[in-house]
Amino acid sequence: MRAVVSQPREANVLLALLVGLAACVATGTPFGLLAPFAALLLYAGGTATRIVNGALAVAAGVLALAAGLAPPDIAHRALDWAAFCAVAFAVGRTIAIQAGRSPLGRPAIATRIIEAMPAHAWSADPGGRFTYVSPNTLDYLGAPVADLAPLPGSDEFGWRRVVHPEDYGRVIEAWRHSLATGDPYDTEHRLRRHDGIYRWFRNAGLAERDREGRIVGWHGTTIDIDDQKRAEAALVEREREMSRLVDLVPSHLWRLAPDGEPIFFNRRMANFLGFDVGTMSNPGLDRLDRLAAAVHPDDQAAFRRTLGWSLHAGEPFALRYRLRRADGAYHWMSSRAEPLTDEGGRIVQWYGLCLDIDDQVRAQDEARRRERELAQLVDMVPGLLWRLDPDGRPVFFSKRMVEYFGDDVEAFDLPGKAGVGASATAHVHPDDLPRVIETLDRCLTTGEGFALNHRLRRADGVYRWMSVRAEPLRDESGAITQWYGLCHDIDDQLRIEETLRERERALWQLVETLPAMIVCADPAGEPVYRSERLRTYLGFGVETLDGAGETRLNRTLDAAIHPDDRAAVKEHYARCLATGEPYLRKHRLRRFDGEYRWVETRAAPMRGESGDIVQWNLICLDIDGEVRAREELRLAHDRLTRASHAASLAELSASIAHEVNQPLAAVVANSHACHRWLSAAPPNLERAKTTAERIIRDANAAADVVGRIRALFRQSAETRDLVAPADVITEARELMAEEATRRRIRLLVEIATDVPPACVDRVQIQQVLVNLIRNGMDAVEAPKSERAIRIEARRMDDAIRIAVSDCGGGILSPEKIFEPFFTTKDQGMGMGLAICRSIVEAHGGRLWAEANAPRGATFVFTLPVSAAVAP
Amino acid sequence: MSGPDFIVYVVDDDMRIREALEELLASHGMRTVAFASAGAFIEAEKPDAAACLILDVELPDINGLDLQRRIAAGEHPPIVFITGHGDIPSSVRAIKEGAVDFLTKPFSDADLIGAVETAVDLDRAHRAARADQAALRRRYDDLTPREREVLPLVVSGLLNKQAAAELGISEVTLQIHRRNVMSKMAAASLADLVRIAQRLEIPITHSRRPSGDVS
Hints:
Strand order of the largest sheet of chain A: 2-1-5-4-3
Helix content of chain A: 40-55%
Oligomer: heterodimer
CATH superfamily of the largest domain in chain A: Histidine kinase-like ATPase, C-terminal domain
Order of helices and strands of chain B: EHEHEHEHEHHHHH
């Protein structure tokens, strides 16, 4: 292609040179030189042309001037040369102008320039077919230009093969678009190098148009932008990473404008705050206010002040404050900001970093709190704490210990054992000192723990017993780093223990010397302790009877309780154990020598704090003498009762006698007086009359007394209550129970359920019942009698019928017995039944006796059903 | 009938008994003063005359037997008890304490009057004895101190010489004192003086025998 352009031009220059020389020779004038000159200029071109032109113009001017001044012969020749120079100048100018005006004028240079450029150039016709492709392109592609031509039989271009398949569609579309519209063509795409590697290129082309605006061709360049492309991609990638980094660093990053306006928050910060720079209401300093508003109210003033100062002075900003999270929780933040300045020192931006140190602050707070608590604990522990270094130098005494010693503990800050030794000498009781020093020495030497009870002097000079313990703290290698010690005041405890021991001994002595037998039993009743007195009594100890099968309790009961009492005792004791009720029972207990003696056993549960029974405590008193004495006493009492019964009757009769005798005595005395007044001479009738009147009066008084006595047994209804007969009968039976037991007579009570209450004088009816029961008891003393009294109560129409029956000797005259002073007994006034009848009749009832078959008697009395409750 | 020279006191809480007794005793011509209670009797002014006290055992303020014991120390009329219901222990006690009789109501006219008369006679005797005694006591009070020293020695039977030695005085002086004692005490003889000394309960302090013989 180069040959095509350069060969004719050099030939032309040579031809013009030859022609010019020929003309010059022929004419004898220099004008012939014009042709070769022109040819040379054409060939040279550029700067050379301009210099030559300049020289020609100057030469023409100088020659013309010389022609004017010189003699005519010379002038003529100079004028020729001046003309020649002028013509040559004109030709040179023309060539120069021509060369500047026409591109085609310098194709060789253009081509050279194009081909030397670090780019690929091309030209194409309006149809898009390449008319020129720079050789470096073809070198790059490793393909002849023909390969780029359109493919025969299709509208596809041959360069399809070298464009990256991914880019081809886009490229061809743009190319076709440009061809169709004439718009500049500009794409970036990959081109395959001859070795098969694709590189990025920028391909740009412009349409060339003629004067009418028709597209005459396309020219373009293809520039290798592969490195650029890669750098750009790398940059993008790095920026993305950067951005991710900014967003992902576990801190808040922010940027402020020089005036303080927030212009960037990283995502974490935005998430934390719940708003971002972009979403803040107004640009400008409002945003800073908004940010400041998120600071804890307590920290806000400091935040504003510090930040304000930093912004004002350009000093770095550093502050800890609490920042409100989107959910309202405040977190401690450690915030720093540094200004970025330009070369002139002006602040361009503030870059800030904000670390969430909430956990840290809290941890610190917690740690401080713990430390404070620990310190407090050390001071509050009710003991004296101290620390020694491994050699025995006191390093620390707790506050309490300092207070306890009361002196200057600094004095013991001596190296090695001297320190602790001095402290010991100063405070330990002299009697304890040797063993304390000895133990201390041994512990410090061997590293074994220190444990000793000794006396320690208090500030007031009082020695108190302390339990002193110290243990070494060892590091990983086992070497002792510290000794930790504790003095615990056990003085009170020792005293209490001593007192307790004393008290326990006293209690034990008390228990053992009490004139009673004492047993302790577990909650199930198993004996766990017996006092010496009881062991001696029984002749066996707690464990003596232990064996397989039976429980200790049962064995003891079987061995010691009288057979007649055993079942009742077991039953009662078992019931108390089950219910927790106190136990009280009298029974016979076998002594070691086989004699059964009466004892009274009392047991009460001892309960724990929860109320559960933890132990049963039993006391067993020998009441044998008492029981016998009481039996005798009861007999005596019984005799006494009978005697007093008799005495009271005597008293009653005495009282009756007095009441009657008093008027009788008056009557008798008056009668004698009257008799004497009448017998006197002369008879004193006046006084006799007076005395006679008195006799009448006093005799009537005596009659009144008798009437009153009768009325004694006719009680008024004033003391009557509504009483259930069952209650009265039960009470009467209880009154007689002891006597019945003693006389071995059973009292059988049978009360119908429908017996209504009656309005009676409770005591009188009781007296009636007691009287009838006692009569019955006396009756069954007769031989061959069944020793039982039956008391029955039932309803009979409008009356309650109460019967007391026996199977005794019976009665011969059922009516006569109710007469006063009738008695069948040796000691009796014969008033009992008479009074009973009068009481019953006073109540509106009847009392009678019936003979029983085959023997015995029944006394029956009725009481009217109270009108108030009668149906 | 010149009226009785004695008074019968009646203490009984029963008005009928008081009336009847007053009437009965009046019919026997006796002077009677009746009281409803022991307190009233003790408080009352009593004339200096022979008397008798008819006392009911059952009194509202104090028991008749207790009253008897309370007045036993002083001079009081002999007591005749009357009671509505006499029991043996009370009657025994009353008699032991010096009661004249213990009558159970109702009592007969004769028993009461008999008892009253016995009591009055007893009181008269008591009063006479008390009057003699008072006279003796007055005479004894007239003795000089030295004469009162001499009297026991003389009635002990000591010889004048012994008695004089005892008192450290001359026999002559003793004889003067002795004569004065005899005359002041209105004793006719030594035997009379001894009897008077006995009634005055003057102890016999000396034996005639020398103390050395007693062994």
